[in-house]
Design brief:
Number of strands: 9
Radius of gyration: 20 Å
Strand order of the largest sheet: 2-1-3-7-9
Distance between the termini: 38 Å
Number of helices: 10
Largest sheet: 5 strands, parallel
Strand content: 5-15%
Order of helices and strands: HEHHEHEEEEHEHEHEHHH
Length: 224
């Protein structure tokens, strides 16, 4: 979905869609990428198109004011949830915000959100925090919800890469907002409209591969 068309579509809303953005075990790279996105620009997206009611790194409020905004938005059940970073399940206290663990925050917020998007390798598969010996028990959002929170087949949109790709994040959010439904997902819960094809499918030399035409040495007939 093009940035211009996406911005136009979002302008149709009289009330800006609310977004809650959790930062768990991560490096903040998945937040930095969208903030550098040119289409739509961060200022246009965050200040005019959607309402980021909670994000520890970019919101003006802090302390009790930030927690108040978070609680009011989540309790409204009229918001979209974006998760960045892995959930700490082995040592829950290793990741706490306002006295609550990432496990508590993630489960409660997921259950009340209109849609949940996990961005970046940490939020989707655990990331570097999940590398052996993984002392904090870091897990991706979907794995945490299904394995630890007792939620069967959680509906989480995975947007992997490290860091999460800015265009992917914006495209998924716009898709959900515009169509008001989750996109078709593959076996890894990734949107088919972004991950449905392999890079090689669009290679201009793919036809030669399919025909068994290979260059064996420089200058041979296969290079013509």
């Amino acid at each position: 979905m093009g940035g211009h068309k996406g911005a136009q579509a979002l302008e149709q809303w009289a009330q800006r869609p609310a977004v809650v953005w959790s930062c768990f075990q991560e490096c903040l790279g998945c937040s930095v990428n969208p903030l550098q996105s040119p289409k739509p620009s961060p200022a246009n997206l965050i200040l005019q198109q959607i309402s980021v009611n909670y994000h520890e790194a970019v919101m003006a409020a802090a302390g009790s004011q930030a927690e108040k905004s978070f609680r009011e938005t989540v309790d409204s059940r009229d918001f979209y949830y974006i998760v960045e970073g892995a959930v700490a399940t082995g040592i829950p206290e290793a990741m706490t915000i306002a006295g609550k663990t990432s496990m508590e925050i993630c489960k409660d917020t997921y259950e009340k959100a209109k849609a949940t998007i996990a961005i970046g390798t940490c939020a989707t598969y655990g990331g570097i925090q999940a590398a052996a010996p993984n002392p904090t028990g870091a897990k991706g959002v979907a794995d945490f919800l299904s394995q630890d929170a007792g939620i069967a087949n959680p509906k989480v949109i995975n947007s992997p890469r490290c860091p999460g790709n800015a265009d992917d994040t914006v495209a998924i959010l716009l898709y959900v907002l515009v169509k008001k439904q989750l996109p078709e997902l593959d076996s890894l819960c990734r949107p088919m409209f972004l991950f449905g094809q392999l890079i090689r499918d669009n290679c201009e030399r793919r036809g030669h591969f399919d025909s068994g035409e290979f260059v064996e040495v420089f200058g041979d007939g296969g290079s013509e």
